[in-house]
Amino acid sequence: MKKRWYAIIACGLFVLVSMSSAAMLRSSSGGHEELITVWDLVMVSLGGPIAQDDVSFYEWSKWLILNLLFLVLIGNATCSEWVERAIFVLPRYSTRNKWWIKKVLALGVTSFVYYFMAICTILVIGSSQFSWAAHLGKWQGTDGPLQFTGIHPFTMLAWVFVLCWSTSLAMAVLQLALAVKWKSVFKPILFISVLYVVSCFSPLFGKQLIKWFPGNQGMFLRHTMVDPYVPSFSLSWSFVYNAIVLMLSMYMGYLYVKKADIFGYAHKDSLQ
Fold first, then answer.
1. Could you give the CA distance from residue 107 to residue 62 in angstroms, rounded to a whole number?
2. What pLDDT, in 10s, does the model give residues 103-121?
3. Which of 51, 54, 114, 127 satisfies CB 3.0 to 4.6 Å to 222 for a cystine?
4. Going by C-beta distance under 8 Å and a sequence separation of 6 or more, which residues neighbour residue 253?
5. Does residue 228 lie in a domain region?
6. Where is the signal peptide, in residue numbers (predicted)?
7. Cα–Cα distance list, 88 to 83, 91, 94, 97 (Å)
8. How far is Cα 219 from Cα 121, in angstroms, rounded to an integer?
9. 112 in a domain, yes or no?
10. Is residue 264 part of a domain?
């Protein structure tokens, strides 16, 4: 039942983001709505805020809500299992490592489905309003802040999905590892929320530092391919960055789970 409600809440948010992004595109097109495509809608809905010093409230809040919803609904459910029911759940597994691996795999599948649903919802909403023409960014004119020359819509779609998925997975596993360490559901979400908010406003610290802030890797519109004023921030960099965060989080979580004393006695580990 919970999973059904999670899906309904997520789809509702996807629809709201799609509709609001469509309205924003129309207002920014200068009367050239016929140039807007469904691919533009996907890019604006999931691409994150652009790397400007004056990031609009709408742009960063939209991206933040989309990403935090996954951590709150999905990641929180996984974390609460450890914090609230570890003493009952872990004995079902022959080793603690199996529980940890199962949860990481579950987060990977769930984050994949989450953003697949998001893209499908946006494409459905966009198909009723915009064309399927194979071009990007023409609605902003020739003097727009972003460059899309030579970027095929399918390439953009694939990278938006990969960046969103890998970023959310890395952060969700980090959230779970911290939940095991801190024995708390709220603190890890608060910690990652702060990371995300700082990343949204990272252009204020200098565009050369944007690529180092966790969270920016999931923002397609901040990469050098699209914004040449952001130096040395390639798509492959973000993928490798997320992979490193994911592996480190998995290793930390493995150590925390292995050493955790769920029975209240120091150094007692009846599952090993």
1. 22
2. 899 999 999 999 999 999 9
3. 51
4. 100, 104, 173, 176, 177, 180
5. yes
6. 1-22
7. 11, 6, 13, 16
8. 19
9. yes
10. no
- Residue 145 carries which DSSP code? S
The token duo for 191 is 């910690």
Low-confidence stretches of the chain (pLDDT < 70) are: 1-2, 53-55, 75-91, 93-94, 139-145, 261-272
Tokens encoding 64? 């933040």
C-alpha torsion 130→133→134→139, nearest 10: -60
* Type of residue at 267: H
Cβ proximity of 176 and 103 under 8 Å: yes
Which two tokens mark 101?
Answer: 């691996």
Contact predicate 270/263, CB 8 Å: yes
Q: Is 268 part of any domain?
A: no
How far is the C-alpha of 74 from the C-alpha of 29, rounded, in Å? 36
- Contact by Cβ (8 Å): 257, 87: no
Domain around 156? 2-259
Q: Both tokens of residue 2?
A: 């919970």
Tokens found for residue 72:
């709150």
- Pull the structure tokens for residue 263: 């029975």
Amino acid code (one letter) for 230: V
Per the structure, the count of domains in the chain is 1
3-state helix, strand, coil in the chain (%, to 5): 70, 0, 25
